[in-house]
Amino acid sequence: MPRPYRDVHTANARALRSTATEAEGRLWSALRGRRFGGFKFRRQYAIGDYVADFACIERAVIVELDGSQHAEQEAYDTRRSAWFESAGYRVVRIWNADFLRDPESAHEAIWAALNEEAQPVLSREEAPHPPRWRSAPSPRLRGEKD
């Protein structure tokens, strides 16, 4: 039976992956394939009602790259970050321009978040709003390779 709720977010995540910014492409080059300290990251990963730019599930870290449009949607980004944090994730926000100018500082911020004391990610029953949060299918079911 199809899951329209999940399908909408998965389709949105796929669309976002195909329209990545220059900064997202460069950061993904550093994070993909366990290149960043052996940690596995997922790009444009649907979590609850939101899509995280980059997510390391094993360490509960989300990296958000913000472009100029985010200055106009600050309230939405604040709500989104608060929801991720209430679900047990640490959120690292980096401006695209800052990343392109000084990628090493961004890498250091991500590394610090990955190495903080790990917080358990809340189970589906414990997660706050949105109530329709579902666990993601395995990478093989989604067609990803390790």
Summarize the structure.
The chain has 146 residues and is α+β, with helices and mostly antiparallel strands.
Please explain how this structure is put together.
- The chain is of the alpha+beta class and 146 residues long.
- It is built from 6 helices and 4 strands.
- Strands 1-2-3-4 form a 4-stranded mixed beta sheet, sandwiched between helices.
- A hairpin with a 4-residue loop joins strand 2 (50-56) and strand 3 (61-66).
- The model is unreliable at 1-5 and 124-139 (pLDDT under 50).
In this structure, how is the largest beta sheet organized? Answer: 4 strands, mixed
* Shape estimate: globular
How many E-type strands? 4
- The span between the termini is 27 Å
Report mean pLDDT, rounded to a whole number. 77
How is the largest sheet built, in terms of strand order? Answer: 1-2-3-4
How many helices? The count is 6
The computed structural class is alpha+beta
Helix content: 40-55%
Task: Give the SSE order as H and E letters.
Answer: HHEEEHEHHH
